[in-house]
Amino acid sequence: MDDLKQSMIDNIKYFVMQFSDSSNGIDINAYINYYKGLNVTPSFGVGNLSSIPFISFLGDGQYTQKGIYPVILFYRLRNTVFLSYGISETNEPDISWNIDNAETAGEFFKREKIKLSNPEKKYNDSLIFKSYPLDTLPIEELVDDLDDIIEVYKNLLINSGLNSTVPFQRPPRSKNEKRERFVIGNLKFTTDPTIEDDSNPNNDDSDANDMETPKFETIQKIFFGTPGGGKSFRVKKFIEEERGAKDRYFRVTFHPDTDYASFVGSYKPIMKGNEITYEYVPQVFTRAYIAAWNDQEHEYFIDIEEINRGNCAQIFGDLFQLLDRKSDTGLSEYPVKADADLCYYLTNAVDEDGNPILKNKDGIKNNELRLPANLSIVATMNTSDQSLFPMDSAFKRRWDWEYVPSTFKEEDNYNIIIGGKTYKWHKFLKEVNDKIKDVTDSEDKQMGAYFIKRNVDEEAFKSKVMYYLWSEICKEEYKTQNNFFRSKIKVDGNTDEKEFTFNELYPDGAKLLIGFMKYLKVKPVEQAEEDEEESGDE
Length: 538
Description:
Elements: H1 3-20, E1 34-35, E2 38-43, E3 54-58, E4 68-75, E5 80-87, H2 105-111, E6 127-133, H3 139-159, E7 180-184, E8 187-191, E9 220-225, H4 231-242, E10 249-253, H5 260-263, E11 265-272, E12 275-282, H6 284-294, E13 300-305, H7 312-316, E14 336-337, H8 340-348, E15 368-369, E16 375-382, H9 393-396, E17 400-403, E18 415-418, E19 421-424, H10 425-440, H11 458-474, E20 486-491, E21 494-499, H12 510-519, H13 525-537
Parallel strand pairs: 9-16, 9-17, 10-13, 13-16
Antiparallel strand pairs: 1-2, 2-3, 3-4, 4-5, 5-6, 7-8, 11-12, 14-15, 18-19, 20-21
């Protein structure tokens, strides 16, 4: 028998041993993570030991939350093991197994007249390649069958235009490494003592959730760019389409009055009948925190809009320490003590049916808060608002940053209608953004393509676009050469350049605005088309 196959046999034996007796903790690092060109991902569950631990084998571009993969499902309470055609439940995979007539796990247990608990029904739709008894598990046979399904899997990946293998990560055990033998029940096990045991049964502060390699890539990212540049659209697409968390994100907009209580929660007066009582009312952070801890099989997000319009130091308080994440587990590196009100709520609050609000008590272990790996935080930031509440470097370094450039799509090239003349939004935007950059020596206050999202008339153009230009740029430049609030108008047959203020656009500013367009060299659509035709005739 070759070393690679022996290594997998030993790993499966050790896996069964660990979930059969987890009293000494779970060592998730004691496994090879690469087999026959595939990533190996063992899972014992998060927090509490799962009723169905599993080992998945992931190919190119395939993940347990989105993809297909061979998987060994251990129904430890039903003395049954399945080698299955794994299919992600979180998101629909891009490719399929194309397997006909395979029995599902649910059909198997129905045929065997075995009634499953609700948690055990999780993989009822899994297609079975082969089943085995757990107490007399024929591990060599299982690994032979695993090799067969892996070959089918690799061919499927190749036919789908993907690589048949993933990059090598860790070599299998070599021949000369010592192995320790021991027996549990009818199974003889081999472990590798040369692998460091990271479980720490004597440390009361160790996290139970460190038992599982994180299923999710924890994200903490700020999407920044100009006003109207499409940041919120980018975040929505990122969460819903790229991460598949359409109904699992909590949105909040920061503003100067946002504080810790409005972000986390506080006691508020509640009318009950004719009496006023005080109850703890959780806000976005707490609601997302509870949802993520209670459902660790799915990814959750907090979406903070306009993050720098609020005082982040005041809003986050000591929660900002939670933003430091462990690279291996995704959990917060430094737990923080929950304030007394929040701690009492997470520990004691129940829903309408009398069930605990926070079912997974690891979320308040030792009265401390820690962000779980499946809770990510994203935010948007307008570059034009950087001076409102500047972020300190300690807060900034805990985030990744992604610039969202303003993109121009022809279907979004809206009309600006002034005094019976029609101007194109994209042409105006290009010219005025050049002026903004010249005046400010920066792109921060430029407008994005989505600053307006429809055709606008004179009133809408004045109140939205012109007011922004005046208040953010030109007001401070009035009576200087930098002020581009200027209009070219005809006086006694001559064209003069007039500097104007925002107030002068009222009540009727059509004449000034048409002259403003001339100053920016933005032609009405009709004139632009005529000029294009004349140029074509030449």
